[in-house]
Amino acid sequence: xxxxxxxxxxxxxxxxxxxxxxxxxxxxxxxxxxxxxxxxxxxxxxxxxxxxxxxxxxxxxxxxxxxxxxxxxxxxxxxxxxxxxxxxxxxxxxxxxxxxxxxxxxxxxxxxxxxxxxxxxxxxxxxxxxxxxxxxxxxxxxxxxxxxxxxxxxxxxxxxxxxxxxxxxxxxxxxxxxxxxxxxxxxxxxxxxxxxxxxxxxxxxxxxxxxxxxxxxxxxxxxxxxxxxxxxxxxxxxxxxxxxxxxxxxxxxxxxxxxxxxxxxxxxxxxxxxxxxxxxxxxxxxxxxxxxxxxxxxxxxxxxxxxxxxxxxxxxxxxxxxxxxxxxxxxxxxxxxxxxx
Amino acid sequence: xxxxxxxxxxxxxxxxxxxxxxxxxxxxxxxxxxxxxxxxxxxxxxxxxxxxxxxxxxxxxxxxxxxxxxxxxxxxxxxxxxxxxxxxxxxxxxxxxxxxxxxxxxxxxxxxxxxxxxxxxxxxxxxxxxxxxxxxxxxxxxxxxxxxxxxxxxxxxxxxxxxxxxxxxxxxxxxxxxxxxxxxxxxxxxxxxxxxxxxxxxxxxxxxxxxxxxxxxxxxxxxxxxxxxxxxxxxxxxxxxxxxxxxxxxxxxxxxxxxxxxxxxxxxxxxxxxxxxxxxxxxxxxxxxxxxxxxxxxxxxxxxxxxxxxxxxxxxxxxxxxxxxxxxxxxxxxxxxxxxx
Lengths: 341, 341
What we know:
kinase (chains A, B), 7-stranded mixed sheet, PurM-like_N_sf (chains A, B), Phosphoribosyl-aminoimidazole Synthetase, Chain A, domain 2, PurM-like_C_sf (chains A, B), transferase (chains A, B), 23% strand, homodimer, ATP-binding (chains A, B), 10 helices
């Protein structure tokens, strides 16, 4: 341990200085970042969106298999994902962290390297936050701010009957990635000399450890002049998010089982684990893809889009939220969100 | 325990609904509060200030003597205090909480009652946040947003030589209140039948449990047309905050020991505990009063102000940061901030 620096060597102010030195501000709307009682922003005539999330060790992540750099990246990405779901452009974040005494300066630096990488990637400025000690594990609480306009902003409540239901990317992989990591952890506990077998699970493990906010799709839709009528990011699972859109838009929906996008590695691994792949897709969660609705007129533009899949359509509220199979069977869906309690 | 509702009975969405129902939005700039992926704000031509703080059970508060309603109030107040220190008007907050399984729905309601009381008092809208479970204690992470303009905003860096150094209220009481609460806790552990003796300690205990952000002084100074040249809120202690102003403004300062505002209950209790009252005043922290500098011309307006005390003046940087006694002795001050690690 002699190569590592205990946190009390640098103290809170030392830590803040260390973090501040790594930061370059790039948003025009950031007037003042870290270093005063508050950050100062100047959004001009824009509307702002604000979202906040907290990640706790032992609840949302496990440091035995989650590298700190990935964790820092993910903590930013999941907040940017909420900004994306409003059809806004992320601009600033504040980061509060609490770390236990066992943490070293080097560990905090690694965490902030991931945070910085995500900030650079999504072009957000880290403008403030708080570092404190924790009696238990690592805690990260992030608030993300984004810019939009009253014309551009997209709520969950705007879906209309006959709209297309679309998702980005593929679903269920983050959940199966977690199952793999948990299995390898148990194997390691049983036999610490064993090497983890992850070679053919890279994709799904990566989906769990280092998800991306789909800003690429947001920018692409803007370029195509397509504005979603309703949108939400998939953190709790497709079924739960579809229920949010339907209840807030006062509509029903039907999604087609055969249209649901899934990666082959996820499908194989689900079979390996004896888990119904449909359960992973509908209720897995943590994929941080976008679920959105668009007017029927966007069909031609989106039908062959490499990152977007049309999975169904919006129906009258009275018809409920349903899953349809190729053979014509229709099953009412249940919202089965991630229960934290 | 049969009168209490376990949290898993209502779940995360039930809890969010419960919190949302209690909220009334009052800020014109709040377009959308809780209920989507992010809140939506429209600050028009204003500048925004953003500040974020995290409070952890066992580090920042002790639930054995801190009522949940007070804690909720305090969590908001300390964030609003940062907004005040920018000479801004608080407008919105987001609240992330993590609660352990031992928490009941009623306990969360009590916490939110305090949060709501503070929101009403400071006229801020609760617009978002996250509720999750914690493996250890209660965690509250709040981000506060406020409005200001480029003409109105006050940084730590604007103090000029010959400016007056002022503080609001009195100092050191929150620290002595904590000593009292710790003493009574130990007495209770030793003999659970004992009643706490707090009758003659109401003021200092209240200063610890339920501090106020000094928005009253901010509004009063605006009415008088006095704009501070530099400002900071006193969370870590007067000495530490004065060092922040001096280093960022590149000036020195002298404060006069006999001018430092102290409450008689704090002074008596310090003597009782054999603690130097000057240490409480200079390094106690958690009073959440404001430390600010104003041009010398404001002297007549402020000299008899009931909530403001002129404690010294700004000097050349080369003179350092000093404490002067009546007899003319001068002691260089040390920044002795609150070390969390």
